[in-house]
Write a structure and sequence with these properties.
Elements (H helix, E strand, L loop, with lengths): L26 E3 L6 E3 L2 E3 L22 H13 L4 E3 L8 H10 L7 E6 L1 E4 L4 E5 L3 H15 L4 E6 L6 H16 L3 E7 L3 H8 L4 E7 L7 H10 L2 E5 L33 E2 L3 E2 L1 H14 L6 H12 L3 E3 L6 H13 L4 H11 L2
Parallel strand pairs: 3-4, 4-5, 5-8, 8-9, 9-10, 10-11, 11-14
Antiparallel strand pairs: 1-2, 6-7, 12-13
């Protein structure tokens, strides 16, 4: 849920995707935690289905077929994806429940990340604001563990992107207590502000920052923080909310339950009631030939840019179908773009 901060590095440089041409990049490490994950994670926002604010503003991606979501997660597992990012807010708990159902006995084979900070009404599928208190963090974690049907969360992430730094320091300390109790293995903050992320980075078990990053929206300051503080860069919106899939056209309408149909201020690239912004689509078209090199789809090329951008990146594209899971996972075999292609893209975008 990007309204509140929305969905690894190779410490020794192996499989890091440093701009070399091609090659399966397999795994990366979640910062200094030592936790190994597939270089590609899957974001579970969309599989939460429909949910809204009390005023009716959509916060999900529209209707979803839970059985298809389960099949997609299991197909991703078969294709080598071991990192799944969700949140208690996604579908007001529904995403966590669907992920738990899909993983079943394979829970031990994967790394599960979830988030907290948003107040939710599960029965009415409503988001009801936020709570940045340490006491609520514990209550939210207990509820997520129940929905995920697990005894621990691998990566627990603060989902309030603009929380006050002094309060965040208290929440960081609460997360350290959760680590000591064995309830979580590591923690992170989902925010686009490097100064805020640096507050969490001071904690011994902070492993990552989740932030927006894609070929159209670079984040050099955040990547510099990740390098300096030995954090993984978990990339939300790696496909620019679908613009980098090549499946959106200017003026194409979106279903009423899709957040992109009534985009909040932070959701750039889409207009109120008008679908994808033509100017953003022109930028995508300008990059098409580079991103689709070597037989990649447009989406696979966008993911390849992320791996080439930094050895610490772990993109988490969303999905709602087996076909999307297969396309996204297929990017792993292609590996990162080359350094020359990165330079070419910067030239096209004028940066």
């Amino acid at each position: 849920m990007e309204t509140t901060g929305n969905s690894g590095s190779s410490e020794n440089g192996e499989n890091s995707g440093s701009g070399e041409s091609g090659g399966n990049i397999a795994q990366r490490t979640l910062g200094r935690s030592g936790i190994q994950v597939s270089a590609l994670g899957f974001g579970c926002w969309a599989i939460g289905g429909e949910w809204t604010r009390p005023d009716g503003m959509p916060l999900g991606w529209g209707k979803v077929d839970d059985d298809e979501s389960v099949r997609a997660v299991r197909r991703a597992l078969d294709l080598g994806v071991t990192f799944f990012d969700t949140a208690d807010a996604y579908g007001t708990g529904h995403s966590e429940r669907v992920l738990a159902r899909a993983l079943g006995k394979r829970r031990a084979d994967v790394v599960v990340a979830t988030k907290w900070g948003n107040l939710i009404d599960e029965e009415r599928r409503l988001a009801l604001g936020s709570d940045d208190s340490p006491a609520y963090a514990r209550r939210a974690l207990t509820a997520s563990l129940r929905r995920l049907d697990t005894d621990h969360v691998d990566l627990y992430q603060l989902h309030i992107s603009e929380a006050a730094p002094d309060r965040a320091a208290q929440l960081r300390d609460a997360c350290e207590e959760f680590v000591r109790e064995g309830l979580i293995r590591a923690y992170a903050w989902s925010t686009d502000d490097p100064e805020r992320a640096a507050v969490f980075a001071q904690g011994p078990h902070c492993a990552a920052v989740q932030h927006r990053l894609n070929v159209l929206q670079d984040a050099p300051e955040m990547l510099a923080l990740c390098e300096e503080s030995e954090l993984a860069s978990i990339n939300r919106s790696p496909l620019a909310m679908g613009l980098l899939t090549g499946k959106r056209a200017a003026g194409q309408s979106l279903e009423a339950g899709d957040i992109r149909s009534a985009p909040p201020a932070w959701l750039v690239g889409f207009s109120q009631g008008g679908g994808a912004d033509p100017e953003w689509l022109r930028r995508v078209d300008a990059l098409r030939s580079v991103l689709t090199s070597n037989g990649r789809t447009l989406a696979q090329g966008a993911l390849a840019w992320l791996w080439a951008r930094s050895p610490r990146t772990v993109p988490i594209p969303g999905f709602r179908s087996v076909a999307q899971a297969e396309e996204n996972a297929g990017a792993l075999a292609q590996g990162p773009l080359t350094a020359g292609q990165l330079t070419e893209i910067d030239g096209i975008l004028g940066r």
